[in-house]
């Protein structure tokens, strides 16, 4: 009996090569598995399955981890307003982790001796796969044929041709990775530092003119309604927002940042729903959370995003941060009003029973009901004390005029 | 001989009232002083001066602190990419501090017994004035007539009328504060949580169509060229960028945040140059700084902004943070290419000799020259070790499948 | 019918004065309340009660909040290894908050119109009381007679004498505040910067010689056993440790730090149990938590301590931090072995099923089982990449020899 | 002509093996280099040199980097009060980096093709060497014979014997690493979690009884006097303090923490001078720095220590942190009084012109001169506002009594 290998399979050239390579060169029983985090339609899934069998896999499985991906990741990225480098909603990086988790779990279930993936040696994904596999299943050996053989596309195509596989492997002008939480677009301009992607490079194109109001209701930080319609399935809510916002071509940008492999990477992305949701959620928080909740959420949310990106999702501190983030959401409940316009959107405002800008004690800048002139004088006297002492002790160090300008 | 009072004077209703009140009710010699941080034209300055004398001040002075404001504040806000709550460039709050500093310095110079300001008891500015005055000149007493008498506009106008001052004090629909680093717009919609300012509320209106390329050169974090033209005067450089960008009506947004007086405040602003400069600078940093420089800059830059906003500019730790920020800028040199479009702009890219996305060691995602497949395997093996041990010791705690979803 | 005032009563001179002052000068019905956080014996409680009635209170109540204090505060201070400025276990400051909470709750329950406390205007406690009262019962007015009348001890004694109260109010040489989580000692040397308290100033004196082993078992961060004996009552466990450790006169130190009122304060303390428990807990964590759990615990634990100290216990972010801290404790289970010696103690080591220093993968520095030489080479190659690129791009900036020494 | 290899040579078994292995098996010209960071006497240096020539090196050099080590590292560790995990002064780890820097600089100077070191594959040092070498001299290849050949001590001894080298290689019971900034002690008990080192394991033994006062003067954070005697050579000052303090056997402890290779490590150390200096410096800072300077120093100082430990000394952000730390020291000037006793020491107090506990505005807890009762009331009213609003809006969420205990 042959040994089993679970292959993280996508239907593309690299993983197609892997099937043939593993079955014929390595004499393994290939169990291809597609970990679906919400980026595939039914038809796409069927097509991938039939192609897998055609290549000779022993068994193909589609692992649906969309719900887990939402429950254990997207939810926290929203709570944490996670935008890497203030820009990027971790569209692809966060999904890879959940795909890796699904693959390793499946491999342990069927008692596979190997796990294989089609990543090259150039990017982040290989780390996300290898690391997750090693942590959770140190007994299973990882094979990464494309990386280890250092094959070019032409060599792969040639290898497949010789084994009777003649598909159209035409390389797209841009390498596009579509997922539930956004689509990344790489190639050409993204390999330079001084050019940006042309409009045509993005999968979604502007379809609407004028402007349109969109409302999103949150309850304890989670989406409950879109334009007044209730959603219990959060995935559906996200897809609905994506449908509305993507037609205005919003949520496009370029991310420049540090990769896990240590070099700077640059990638374009479109992520209409993630951007709209995070900005809306953030504004709702500005109204419902206190200054120090916002302060610490920013620290921990950004760190969470960084670790998620860098394949440290399983690090135990991530669970602790999730508890923190969840706790902060207890009053993040209300409606956010957004205006969609071509290529941009704005958050108009919010309505919430938990709005701390409530006028119970007066509006800012208007007649105040919560304090007197004398209270302010006392306040500033006390606030001034430490600096007053410092300046007295340190002989006027704080006086600007004494220093050169 | 009467006692001297220095009045922070702007020419508006509140400070006009203060002149009359201090001279006639308090029997003080009023030295009116306008602290100019770059928001006034020559004509405006003259007009303010003549109005001051008309009201009866003993002496009027315009204190130009524009350069100091740039050297000791704006520069660091750029280094730190300071946007409060990820949104607001501290347009007005940072200027107030430098106005207060100029006033207190002047008061000490002329031996004033009192300093007066026209702030009400409702906002942040009173704290910025009182606190700065107290820290640097605890021997000088602060008078804030509007706050302490709790006067309404009508009462002030009436008081002035009775003393022969009949000007047009018509209240503007919006309260507008114009400065070098942006203009704030308050009133009506900003007092609600669910409405946003209409286009007409903003002082600058869209004047251009189509798109236009703007380039900004930075050297060690400071602007040196705009569209190829060299600027040694950084204030002029900022004003030039403002002129170009404001005609596209970019840099508008709403800031919602915590005030020093403890309640939530909401204010609109337009800050074309600050937003364009900060975003451009930030992208240049993403290319030229390391991951950990970016990480710590974010912590310290945000804190710097918060303290600046909250009137803690004189706190000694601010000087330490400035040293840090300055040090990080040693390689932030290069050209940033921006595209201006109606109501929005995008950073196209950068060109820099210090670009760490340099292809010396290969581009991200392409064939790598800096490591081998085996290096990555070693890397992930080592990275995985702590979590592998954790999972072994803690009996599979990290395995997701064992937990409920 | 007279209005009710709840007086935070301790039986000392200041609060005795308050009873007489409030009943006779203010014509109020005084409800004296002693909020007990674990620092009083049964006899002390009875004595305080009888003295209260003797002074003329309408009703006296002892509010036992020891358990709440542990559940809602001490527990988190242990989880967070809270030592202010790396030294001080917040012995008194944390208790004041829970006393204030009990008082305001009681005042609301009996419908009091006023709350009174005996704090002077010089310290932190007045802030802790006032702030807590205002936040939770803005409708109740606070009276602080000693602070507002600025009375000297002599004036208070005189006032009481005139009303027939002749007790021995002899001032102690040191002001001592005894509580469950430590005792503070102020006066004489603590008012200087260059002297320390003599041994005799501390309430507990060295009673033992030689050395003694103490073991503490923790389960999820909470004490379960002391020297092998199980404790369900955590208060009893703490008192048992205190009994053992205090006889070795350990846990003494001086705290110098920033007070809420803005000046530096210096105070001696003895806190045998808190110091032993926190150090023991900390070492157990070093063995059972990951690097990043320790990293973030330090940030959040220190902040928690600072906010607790500064009367910000009710700030909503504190509840979020508690969730974080609690989550980190899931594997902090094991036995810690401590050696007590005169004036010092050392943590010998720990035993835990969750010890990550487990030899499953080899001991540090010994033959390793988890990686190969080649893995380390790959690891360092990858780790070196960003700095290698930086140095290449920035023309040898990292080479030390090129710079002056 | 043979290729040159620079060998980081210490005279021990491992590096002695390397000389023979590199000359005879690899046919290289060995340039042995001892990087001295202050832990060697003249005699030791001579002995090491003669042994090197005896083994057949082409040339031996002693590189004295003591001064650089102080200027570029120890100084900042003092500024930052660096104690890893609140315990360990990075005695050995920080020295390794400066040894590696000296070695790579020397290798570049003489045009070596290889650098060799004697580290095993089990510890942190290999990473410190490899990483530093790679970053600064990517063109030089690193050889680590002991690691790569996985040799046992016996095999090494045998190899040397066969080549006529018969020295006494008796393994010490503990592995001891002596340096300027402390000595580490590993072996036996440190490989367990539940035992501590016996007194005899430490190189320095208790030599004095009773107690002794020690004073240290700091100027801008650097030591200028010890017991009143001025020192311009900071290394001498440190050695003088070490001489005095070590005779009381202070500064011993166990460090448990995360290694760079990913597992937990435990090591004993004695570091009398570092501990005394850091604690003294820290107390001086508590008196001379503001709350927020202390706050940020703690964050950045701890991070600096972590990165130093983990071989990230060359990371550019470290230079930025150094600028921050240096800036904070501008007023850290004064005398610290310490009392040395057997096995422990206490900081008695400080004297400084920059002492913020100055009585200009009154002592803490005593009659205050800087504010009135009314000021405190205003202060607490303002401080209470955000929480008062929060509690009003969120229907009493902050009231503890409504929740279960």
UniProtKB/TrEMBL annotation, chains A, B, C, D:
It comes from the Bacteria. Keywords: Amino-acid biosynthesis, Arginine biosynthesis, ATP-binding, Ligase, Nucleotide-binding. InterPro entries: Arginosuc_syn_C, Arginosuc_syn_N, Arginosuc_synth, Arginosuc_synth_CS, Arginosuc_synth_type_1_subfam, AS_cat/multimer_dom_body, Rossmann-like_a/b/a_fold. CDD domains: ASS. Gene3D superfamilies: Argininosuccinate synthetase, chain A, domain 2, HUPs. The keyword DNA damage does not apply. The keyword Nucleotide-binding applies. This is argininosuccinate synthase. It comes from Carboxylicivirga linearis.
């Amino acid at each position: 009996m042959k040994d089993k290998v679970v292959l993280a399979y996508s239907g593309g050239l690299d993983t197609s090569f892997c099937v043939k390579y593993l079955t014929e060169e390595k004499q393994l029983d290939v169990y291809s598995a597609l970990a679906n985090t919400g980026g595939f339609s039914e038809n796409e899934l069927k097509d991938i399955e039939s192609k897998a069998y055609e290549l000779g896999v022993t068994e193909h499985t589609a692992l649906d981890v969309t719900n887990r991906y939402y429950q254990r990741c997207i939810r926290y990225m929203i709570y944490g307003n996670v935008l890497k480098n203030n820009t990027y909603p971790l569209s692809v990086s966060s999904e890879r982790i959940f795909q890796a988790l699904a693959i390793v779990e499946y491999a342990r279930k069927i008692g596979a001796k190997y796990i294989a993936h089609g990543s090259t040696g150039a990017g982040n994904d290989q780390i996300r796969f290898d690391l997750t596999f090693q942590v959770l299943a140190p007994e299973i050996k990882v094979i990464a044929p494309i990386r280890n053989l250092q094959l070019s596309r032409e060599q792969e195509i040639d290898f497949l041709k010789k084994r009777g596989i003649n598909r159209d492997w035409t390389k797209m002008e841009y390498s596009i990775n579509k997922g539930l939480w956004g689509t990344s677009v790489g190639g050409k301009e993204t390999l330079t530092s001084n050019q940006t992607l042309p409009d045509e490079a993005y999968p979604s194109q502007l379809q609407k003119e004028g402007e349109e109001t969109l409302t999103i209701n949150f309850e304890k930080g989670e989406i409950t309604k879109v334009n007044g319609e209730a959603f219990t399935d959060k995935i559906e809510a996200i897809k609905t927002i994506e449908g509305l916002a993507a037609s205005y071509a919003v949520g496009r940008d370029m991310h420049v940042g540090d990769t896990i492999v240590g070099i700077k990477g640059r990638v374009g992305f479109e992520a209409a729903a993630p951007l709209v949701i995070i900005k809306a959620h953030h504004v709702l928080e500005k109204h419902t959370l206190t200054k120090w909740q916002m302060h610490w959420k920013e620290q921990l949310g950004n760190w969470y995003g960084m670790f998620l990106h860098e394949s440290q999702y399983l690090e135990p501190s991530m669970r602790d941060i999730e508890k923190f983030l969840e706790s902060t959401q207890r009053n993040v409940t209300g409606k956010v009003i957004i205006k969609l316009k071509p290529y941009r959107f704005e958050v108009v405002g919010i309505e919430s029973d938990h709005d701390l800008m409530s006028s119970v004690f007066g509006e800012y800048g208007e007649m105040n009901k919560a304090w007197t002139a004398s209270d302010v004088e006392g306040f500033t006297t006390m606030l001034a004390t430490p600096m007053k002492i410092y300046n007295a002790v340190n002989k006027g160090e704080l006086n600007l005029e004494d220093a050169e300008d």
